[in-house]
Amino acid sequence: MSCSLFEFCRLQEFKTVRDFLFRNEKSEPVEEKSQTEDNELSWDTSDWESAWEGGDNKEEESTSDKKVADDAGGQGEPWLQDCVVSLSPCADLLVVAREQKAAFLSAKWRTDDSGREEMTLGVSWTGTLSTEEGECVSSTICIPLASQKRSSTGRPDWTCVVVGFTSGYVRFYTESGVLLLAQLLHEDPVLRLKCRTYEIPRHPGVTEQHEELSILYPAAMVTIDGFSLFQSLRACRNQVARAAAAGNDVIQPPPLAYKKWGLQEMDTIVDHSSVGIMTLCVFDQMKNASILGGFNASVKGSPPAMSQYVTVGSGPYTGFYYAIEGSSQPLLSHVAMAVASKLTSALFSAASGWLGWNKNKNEEEAPQKQKPKVEPATPLSIRFGLPDSRRHGESICLSPCNTLAGVTDDFGRVTLLDLARGIAIRMWKGYRDAQLGWLQVPEERSERDLSPSASLPRRHALFLIIYAPRRGILEVWAMQQGPRVGAFTVGKHCRLLYAGYRLMGVNSVTSQGWQLHTQQVCLLDPITGALRTVNIPFHLALSDKKSERAKDMHLVKKLTTLLRSRDTELDILESEARSILLDIKHPAVKKQALESLLSNKNTPVSCLVNITRALDDTLKRQEPEEVDAGLLQLCSSQLKLLQLYTDIQQLHSATDVEESAENDSLEGIEEELSRVAPTLQRYAQFTPRPSVSFAQDSPDSPLPAQAFLSQLECTEDEEVKVIRRSETEWNQLGNFLFWSCLCGKSPLHKVCYTLQQAGISPQQLLSLLLSVWLHREKEVLQKPEENVRNLHRLLVALSNMKGAVEESWDPQSISPWWQQVRTTCVQSHNAAAALLAALVTHRAAKASITSRADSKFQSEWEAVSLELEQWVVCVRQLEDVLVLQTLLLVPPPPGATGGATVQCSIKTLLEGGTGGIADSVSKWVFRQDISPERLKEILQKRGNKEADDNVEQRDEEERHEKEKSQEDTDRTAELLLALCQRFPHSLSPDFLFAHCCWEYVVQWNKDPEEGQYLCWSVEHLKMVSSPHIQQGVCTMMWSTFIVKRFSAATFLMEKVGKAPKDRLCRRDVGMGDKAMTSFLGCCVQLLNILMEADSAVEEVSAPELSIEEAWSGAEGPASIAELALEQKGVHYPLVQHHCLLASLLHAAMTFSVKVKPFSLFDSKGKNAFFRDLTTIQLMPSGDMDPGLVSVRQEFLLRVLTGWVQAIDDPSSSTPLPSSGPRAEWWPSLCLELGSLLQVNPDILRRHLVCELYSQGLDLRAEEVMLEVEDKDVLGSQLLVLTGQRLSYSLLHSQNQTQAAMELLARLPPPSARG
Q: Which Pfam families does the record match to this protein (predicted)?
C-alpha cells in the first residue's frame, strides 16, 4: 500500500540504437560532445557557479569525477542524455534522435519463459530525418491520433511523430518514418515542442480546453489548432496511401491554421507551457482595471477569455504572457489593446510555403534553394514575471490540472509555481539537472461507494515526480505542501519521460465511456532497457487527521515493526498485536494486517491462535450488517487450519503408537521384494550422495505454521483444499503429514481420521503421500520392509475414506483412484520408490477387487484381469526402468567426459519413441567412454552365455585398487548384459550400435575439435551387421553433419592451393588443421562403408524391427534404425566420386601437398560434387585429357614422396602404425587412386622404388620392385640412383684417397650430383 516502481515494458535492441546514432563518433568524452551540440539550451556556467555556490563545488566535482569514471565503462556511458527522446503517452512508440539520425521503436508482444504475454519495444525504423544542410533534430514528440471508427472510438489509430529542427522546420512523420508534411513557420531553431489534448472537465465550472500544438523558438511561439492539425494529418496520411498505390509522388497537403506570437521583454527563453484559456473572476478584473487604468477605468460585466503562456529562461526568470481571444475590445490595459489591434491580421492565417515529399532528387533541390515565405509574428508583451538576475530557468513542466507548474534552474532548485496567482509557493534545493513529471491519481471507488456523496465526481490527488540524476534517486512529493511519500534508488543515466497529454482528436462526445489507460510518467533506464512507471496509492495524499485509512496504515506499519523485532517477549507481542489488530477500523486494512501476522515466521502458533480467536469473537459480537463477510470468513477458516496444524503436530509427538494388525503382513509382497532385492541394493549403492544443504532446507526440519497456512485454504463448503504451488512446498507438506506415519512413529489411523474430519479430499492426501514416498527414496530403501508395511496400511486407510473409491465403480473399468497411483509412478524419476509403491498398491487393489467380488457372491474374472493387468504391465515397466536407471547411475571413470546423469521414467521412455531406451544407453556409453571394441566384446558375451539375474555383492573395501577397478568394469558389463536381457529387441546389437554411432557424431558436431568422437562414431557404424541400417545411417550422417564441413574444407583448399593453416581451418571449417585431417580420414572411411553397404543391400533382406510387448505403447520419434531403413538408396558412382575426392584431400592434408582439388577433375566431375548421394548425376567417363592425367600423376608422386620421407630411419625395425602419415597402406591407396584417376600404376611403382632406395629403405624397395613391369626404365632410373649413392659414399668417406677421387671424376654429371 505504498509507492512502487512497476516495470511494464522492456526495450529490445537498445544497443543497436546506440550504435546507429553514434556510429561515426570518435572516442571522446560525452561531456565535451554535449557542450558543443546543445545549441541554445546550455551555457558555460563554471565562472559564476564556483563563486555563487562555493560550498557545493566539492560535491559537484566529486560527482563529476565519478561520472567520468562511470563513462569509461562503456555500458554505463550516459549516451541517452545526448539524445532527444520522446515516448507516446500510450507507451507504444519511442523516438530516439540525435543530430540528423533517428530510431523509432514500436510495441511488440512476446511470450516469456513462463508463458505470459509481455510487451516490448523493438526497432521498427531507423534513418536520417534532416533534409536541409547542417540542420539537426532539436525536439520531438509522439502524438497518438484517435480512431474515427465506431468500433474503436476513443482508441488510438496511429501515432504521428513531430520533429523540430535547428533550421526552423517542423516535420510530421508516420510510425514507419514516412514524411507527411513539413512546415517552415519561423527561421530560428525550434527549441521545444509541446502538445495539449482534450481532458474531460472534472467540475461543472471548469473551462473546456482546446487541443493545440505549441512550437517555441528563441523569440517567438507558434500555436497550431488541434482540430485543424488532426484533420490535416489524417488527410495527408490518406493522400500518401493513395499516392503510393497510384504511383504518384507529388501531393498537395491541405492548409493548416496557426497563430504566431513574438514574445517580447524577456532576454532568453528556453522552455514554455501553454496553460490554456482562462477567464478572470470579477474581483480580479476590477483589481487589474484599477491598477492599470486608474480611478477612471471602465469595467464591463463580461471579462474577456485569454490564453495564458508561461516561459522560463532569464531576464526575468519566469514570464507570464496573456493573449486575448476573439476580436472583442480590451477593457483592462493598453497592452491588451495593442495586442487586440493586431490580432485581425495574425490570427488563424493560412500556412504558406508547403513542401512536397517523396519526390525525386531533382524535384527536391528546387524547394531547398528557395525557402518559403515566413509570416511575421504578432508582438506579445509580457504581463509580469518573477525577476531573478542570477537565476536561469532550464525547463518547465505543467501539471495535468493546469494550475501548477514545476520549474528547474541552473542553481539546482525546483520551484513550484501557482499559475493562477503567478507566485512561487514552494522550492526544493539540491536537484541539479533535475527532470520533472506529474502523476494524477484518482480515488478508489470502493472507498466512497457507501458514502452520501458517492454520486459526486471522484477526488484526484496530485503528485510531483522529481528525478535527480546526479544522485540517482526518484522522489514522489504530495502537492501542494505535502511530504515526500516515496523515494527510489535508480540509475544515474535514466531519463524521466513525461508527455503531459493524451490522444488528439477526442472531444466531449467521443470521450464518453473512454477507458483508455495511458502512462503519465515513465522512467527509461538505458543500461537495462527497462521502462518503469510509478504506482502511488490515493491515500498517501491524505493527512493523518482526516483519513481513517491513513491511521490504519500507520497501525499496520506499527504491527510490521513489532513483528520484525526479535527481542520482544511473547506475552507482550501477543497483547500488543491483538490491540493493534482490534484498533484498525477499515476491513480491508484489518484483513491485510491479519494476513501479515499469519505470514510472520517468528510468531508462535499459540500466539496466532489467540489473536485470531480474539478477532473472531469481536466480529461475532458486532451487528451482522456492520461485519465484513470476507474478514469473518478469513478468521474462521484460519482458526480451523491452525487447529488442524496443532492436532497433527500433537499426534506426531504422541508416545503411543499403533501396533500393526496381523493382516498387515507382507505375505503377498515378500516374494516380489526378494526378487527385486539385489537390484534395489545395487541401485541404492549408485544413488548420489546428498550435497551440502542448509538446515532449514532439510526434509526433517519442522514445517512452520505459516507455510502450512499458505498451502491450504477453506472453501465455501467448509472443506479444506490444498494449493499446489511449488514442488518443494508440496513435498514439505506431505513430509509434515505422513513421514512420521511411514516411519512408524505416529498413529496413522488417527492422523488419517483427523485429516478426513478436516475435509481434505482423499485424492489430495494420496498425492501428498506418494510425493513424500518418492521424494525420500533413500530413506525408504534403508528399511524397505518396515516402510512398505506402513505404506500399505496408509494406502488401505486412505482407500477406505469416503470419496476415495467410488461406490458405483464398475470393476470392468479402470478405477480413477488406482489410476492416480499408476500415473504418479509412471511419471516418477525415482525408480526404486515407484516400484515399491506399485507393488504395494497392486496388492491393495487386488484385495479391494477381491472383496468387492466376494460381496456380490459371484466371480467376475474379467473385472479382476482388466484392473490388475494394468498393474502387471506397470510393475514390469518399473522393473525395467529400475535396471536401466541403475546402469545410468554408474559413475563415469576418471578422465571421462562425464556429464549429468540422465533421469528416466516410464513416461519419458514412452515419449522417447521406440528408440528411447537405446538412446539413453548410447548417452551412457558416451559418458562412460566405452570404446566400440569394448562394447562389442560385452555384447558378444550376451550370445555366448546367459547372464545371471542375481549378481553377487562384492566386498569392495578389502580389495586392492587395481582389483577394484577391474571389479567395477566387470560389474558395469554385467549390468549392461542384464539390461540387454530385459530389452532383447530395443537393445539388439544393431539397434545399440546405430544409436551409439549417432550419439558420437552428435557430440562431435558440438565440438568438432574432438576428432576421436567422429572416429568412434565410424567404428560403431562398422559394428552394425545389417547393410540396410548401415546404408541409412551413413546417408543421414553425411547429409546432416558431414557434407557441409566437407564442402567447406574442399573450397578452402581450392582457394589457398595447399594445406591450409590452423587459423583458416578454424574460420571456414570450424576446426583446427589437425582435427580437419582426422575429419577427412573419417570421411573416407564413412564413404567406404557406404559403398560396401550399398553393394551388400541386394544380397540381404531388410531386418524386421520390433519392440517388447510391455513397451508397445511407445509414442514419439522413430528410432535411428527405423529412420535408416526409410532412407533411399544411393548412387554408387557418385559415392565413389566423393570418396575419391575425400582421399585426395586427406592425402594433401597429411603430407602438406600443394594442390587445388578441383584441378584434378574435369567439368563433369566438378559439377557432381556435393550433390545428394541418392540422385543420379552425370559422371566423368572415357579417357581423360593427358594434361589432366599429368596433373593427377604429379600429385600422387608427391604423396608417395611424402610417405617415404615420413618413414623412420632404415635401421629402425619397428612396424609402421595403422594410421597417420606413416601408415602402411598409403602406397596401396595411391595405386588404387591411380587406377581410378587413369594414371599408369607402373610409373607410381617405379617412383616409389626410387624414393625408397634414395631414402635407404632397400628391403622395402626390393619388395615393391618385384611388381614393376617395365624393368628397363626402372633400370635406367636405378643406374642414376646408384651413381648418386656411390658419389655420396665417396664424398662422405673418411679415407678420401686419390683413387677414390679419380673414380668420382669419371662419373657422369647426373651421378656426380648425388
A: RAB3GAP2_C (PF14656), RAB3GAP2_N (PF14655)
